[in-house]
Amino acid sequence: TSMNQWFVVRDGREVGPLSAQQLKELASKGRLRPADLVRREGMSSPRSARDIKGLPFLGLPIDSPAAEAGT
To answer: What is the pLDDT of residues 38-60, one digit of tens each?
Structure first.
């Protein structure tokens, strides 16, 4: 079960470990943004949160390409 622990990297700091459920809750509340970097335990490098399937980002339909203004 330790492989299901996630870490969020923001402003050079890593936050976690978080469960997959916690990650989904953060996304749905707008506290995890599509551009944030996330890493699962065992991953060599972090990936954009938008690349992680099943995260329900606030204001975005699930599984749609994230359109971000200003990037």
So the answer is: 999 888 899 999 999 899 998 76
Q: Quick one: which of 12, 41, 11, 66 has its CA closest to 23?
A: 41
Task: Give the global pTM.
Answer: 0.73
Q: What region, left, alpha or beta, does residue 30 occupy, with left being phi > 0 and alpha being psi -120 to 50 degrees?
A: left
Tokens representing 18? 């978080």
Report how far residue 25's alpha carbon sits from residue 22's, in angstroms, rounded to the nearest whole number.
Answer: 5
| 27 torsion bin: left (phi>0), alpha (psi -120 to 50), beta (else) | alpha
AA letter at 60: L
